[in-house]
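Researcher: Here's the sequence for the chain we discussed earlier.
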Amino acid sequence: MKVKLSFLMILLFFGCTVNRLFAFPLDKLMVLVAIGVNYSFYDKLSKKALFVIASFIVCVILSYITNLFSFSLLLIFPIIGLLFATSTASKERNIDFLYWSLWFHILVGIFYVIHSYIVGWDNMNRFVHIMFDKGLPFLHAALGFTATVQAFSTLCLAWLLLYYHKKETEGVDNRDKAMFYMAILAIILTFNRNTFVLFLVIMMFRNRKLFYSLFAVFLAGFIYFFDFISQLIFNVGTINSRKL
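Model: Thanks. This is the structure I predict for it:
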């Protein structure tokens, strides 16, 4: 029974990260379900968590009062996010469920990138981003079941933080270490500049040896493939598109 419950919780948290698999926003529905499950079966929110949520609700109300004719429902979404984060963090076991759900999504992202190269253009799947916008159509960036490369990158970085949390609290085994390097592969497959920078920052504080090794590899690769990498890193197409 406990195994089945754990699997269902992992599946629930996995659903919280799925945005593009179906025609409806499964992730938002699963977040609401997860909040309900956490409130029903797990510890109540701490006073600090309630204070943060109450403070944000007050800010939303004040925004509504001062912008009666331009109020957006988007202001409500962060409240739901706070409820999800605080209710999930109230039970340590939830961290394990989130750890595995994010890992499975990382595997999905890697699988679809490999699949896209195997099947070619004729049978291209919609779970990768072909980098036409950067003039690099031969690169397929990982999307998983998220809407953007940045969203998938966030899942990868979140998993890394959970990995280091587990390493400090429970310890990690060879399986976790193998998963760690697979997560690094997923981060590379995003071909996202911001993600690379944040990843190196995390490694600088959490794994100095790996940071220096990766920095040396990136530096050597940058020198050798200067024209190609400069086109990827210094491309301003995405910046210009935000001006329109």
